[in-house]
Specification:
By secondary structure, this protein is mostly helical. The protein contains four helices and two strands; from the N terminus they run H-H-E-E-H-H. The termini are far apart.
């Protein structure tokens, strides 16, 4: 059950990463449909691959992958470690994007000072001359 929660969390992190990247690109007026599509495809393929590997490990839980210092790591343990590593990588990326969004000013806001000097008119540019009556 913990692996399923980890997998669902990973899918949510992938979706959040794509959403935050898209919002940043929209705000910067750099959004690209091809890049968005490729990001969605990449996220979907990663999620499907992890699901496939999880079910392969579920069907063959005792299959030995590697033995390190007398410690046997089976396929399910390896799958859990891979999902945990992917979860951590996406979580760090999403947290970094959230931090950047929170700490930067929103583009497009009025950056001019509240009080601007008054514009000069034609009367202001003329030298002080006696007024005609």
């Amino acid at each position: 059950m913990a692996s399923i929660r980890l997998a669902v969390g990973l899918v949510l992190l992938i979706a959040a990463n794509i959403a935050l990247g898209s919002i940043n690109a929209i705000i910067a007026c750099e959004w690209d449909l091809v890049k968005f599509r490729n990001g969605c495809i990449k996220g979907g393929v990663i999620a499907l691959a992890l699901i496939a590997v999880y079910f392969a490990g579920y069907l063959n839980p005792d299959l030995m992958v590697v033995e390190v210092s007398g410690q046997t790591v089976n396929l399910m343990t390896a799958v859990s470690l891979v999902m945990l590593a992917a979860f951590t990588a996406y979580a760090v990326d999403v947290i970094g994007k959230l931090k950047d969004m929170l700490l930067t000013a929103t583009p497009g806001t009025d950056q001019t000072p509240a009080a601007l000097p008054e514009e000069k008119t034609d009367e202001d540019e003329a030298p002080d001359a006696p007024k005609e009556e």
